[in-house]
Design a protein that fits this description.
368 residues, alpha/beta, 6-stranded parallel sheet, 5-stranded mixed sheet, 15 helices, 11 strands
Length: 368
């Protein structure tokens, strides 16, 4: 049996992972469950799955994530932020497979992870629907044959809104995603399209392609989950009804498993539409390309500033239209300092903390 650790077991991806594990009791043994602070939900999961190890990050600290993966063959990383970075690196050092559902880890430490991956026997399996789709499109093909990768985006709830109305957007509106059921952080990131900036960066590291070979394509129906265009002009697309259990199940099994969502009904699916991203309306999406103009630690700075923006926005302390300016101002403030510092776990943590404080002070008016 495959011994599985689920980091972030009580969140949106974590609970869907538990649903997949529930379907295959003879294939998987859940050895560890870690949540951030939802002790009640963690206790329910522990009662059902009987893991050897459980912990709450809010009580036990980030070290518990490393403890959780020490006795597993496969770690599902579904935590928020960079708290699982050291656990991911531990897995790579100890040949433990990783099903990665956390964007921030790859965004902030993509080069560190890829360098270790080259020396490791571990598999790094993307669980994001877009990157899973690309990996499916590339089956049996060399990345050298790829002309460009096409990351699809739903466009979130505001794609058809007039830009002049963006300043009045409320958190309640932003949390109503048209196609996906996700946690509040990723739902807001989808609304600002900051999630696409993260996914461009992830794709650059996961598939070893330059950012300028990655395009964002808005596909409102969320049936095509991403595409790969090859040098001969042919395009492969991966399609399914939107359900995160498909990539989760594939990551766990390493193969196609039981059907988890209804088949696409082409008789009812009247239209599939595609548009290039409107970077004027959604400037945060452009950061996935622009960040490579700055030192490597700038991605950590960007991620930290965005985290603060999301929290402040949900508290009604930041306008929807202010995300980009706060993020890029924070990046520019630290860019020269970061240019002299090496990309290490220690420096990632240092710049994460400093950037959060600076962005928070900027929003609160402490810094003019």
């Amino acid at each position: 049996m495959i011994k599985v650790a689920v980091l972030g077991s009580t969140g949106s991806i974590g609970t869907q992972t538990m649903d997949v594990l529930r379907r295959y009791p003879n294939k998987f043994k859940t050895v560890s469950l870690v949540a951030y602070s939802n002790g009640e939900k963690l206790a329910e999961q522990s009662h059902e799955f009987n893991p050897e190890y459980t912990a709450l990050i809010s009580l036990d600290g980030e070290q518990c994530l490393i403890e959780a993966v020490k006795n597993c063959n496969l770690a599902v990383v579904a935590t928020r932020g960079i708290c699982a970075l050291e656990a991911v690196l531990y897995c790579l050092d100890h040949d433990i497979d990783i099903a990665l559902a956390n964007k921030e880890t790859m965004v902030c430490a993509g080069k560190l992870i890829c360098d270790k991956l080259k020396k490791s026997k571990s598999r790094l399996i993307p669980v994001d629907s877009e990157h899973f789709a690309i990996s499916q499109c590339l089956l049996g093909r060399s990345i050298r044959d790829v002309k460009r990768l096409l990351l699809t985006a739903s466009g979130g709830p505001f794609w058809n809104f007039d830009k002049d109305s963006f300043a009045s957007i409320t958190p309640k509106q932003a949390l109503k995603h048209p196609n996906w059921n996700m946690g509040s952080k990723i739902t807001v990131d989808s609304a600002t399209m900051m999630n696409k900036a993260f996914e461009v960066i992830e794709a650059k590291w996961l598939f070893d392609v330059p950012a300028d070979k990655i395009d964002i394509v808005v596909h409102r129906q969320s049936i095509v989950h991403s595409m790969a265009e090859f040098c001969d002009g042919s395009i492969m697309a991966q399609m399914a009804n939107p359900d995160m259990r498909i990539p989760i199940q594939s990551a766990l099994l390493g193969e196609t498993g039981k059907q988890v969502t209804p088949s696409v009904d082409f008789g009812k699916l009247l239209t599939l539409t595609f548009e290039y991203c409107d970077f004027d309306k959604f400037p945060c999406a452009r950061l996935g390309y622009k960040i490579f103009e700055y030192p490597p630690l700038a991605a950590t700075i960007m991620n930290a500033a965005n985290d603060v923006c999301v929290d402040k926005f949900l508290q009604d302390k930041l306008l929807f239209t202010d995300f980009f300016n706060i993020i890029i101002s924070t990046v520019k403030y630290f860019a020269d300092k970061a240019a002299n510092d090496e990309l290490t776990v220690t420096n990632i943590k240092i710049y994460d903390e400093r950037s959060r404080k600076y962005a928070s002070d900027l929003i609160d008016g402490v810094i003019c």
